# Entry
Amino acid sequence: METPRHVPQLPLALRSPPDQRLETFVGAPDGAIALLDACASGGANDWVFVSGPTGAGKTHLLLGACARAMAAQRRPAYLSLTSAAGRLRDALQAFEGMDLVTLDDLDAIAGHRDDEVALFDFHNRARSQGANVVYTATARPDALSLVLPDLRSRLGQCIGVPLAPLDDDGRRDVLRQRAQRRGLGVDDAALDWLMRRVGRDLGSLTQLFDQLDRAALAAQRRLTVPFLRETLGREPDARPDS
# Structure
């Protein structure tokens, strides 16, 4: 019998990024943060299904919920279903007895019957054990290419939290708050420069911003347009919005 391969998951207390907390999320629908906080801390028995396009912040919410559960002395777990596709039953065995289970990117196993059956079985066990589960996907359960009707039905019973991509003001707020939490000075002109010339995808922006943060700290500089041009080596060509 083949030994199950290791499935990457969140080493709970240590690797939940400090920027990815429920209270730092920008642009959540009304009531969504309170709902996830209650689920994570044990204040509610609700199950949640977060849907939205890539870059809308779904993983941020899951990691934030895990951090909140840890603060409430509960046992959380995070799993990217992309990492576990094709062997989900083995992966989910490690989550038995957890208080909060967050499962990211349900799209990765949609259409794979064995994985869907494994998730259906896990869903029922976790419900009977009183655990909280939060799912994410790019679309609502009724719009996913699931082949197991019973799984679609179970997921449809979760409370839906739809996310929309942030507009430019929201992206600026995310970057500005990151700078403030780090004690880093940033000019509005620098944020505009990044968004015009590097792109508006929030995941790419925050990743690059973290690199610039380290460079600015080492140089004891503010994030200004001249510093960006100097650090990036050249001024990138403007990219169209996606």
About this structure: DSSP finds ten helices and five strands in the chain. The mean pLDDT is 85. The domain at 168-232 is CATH 1.10.8 (Helicase, Ruva Protein; domain 3).
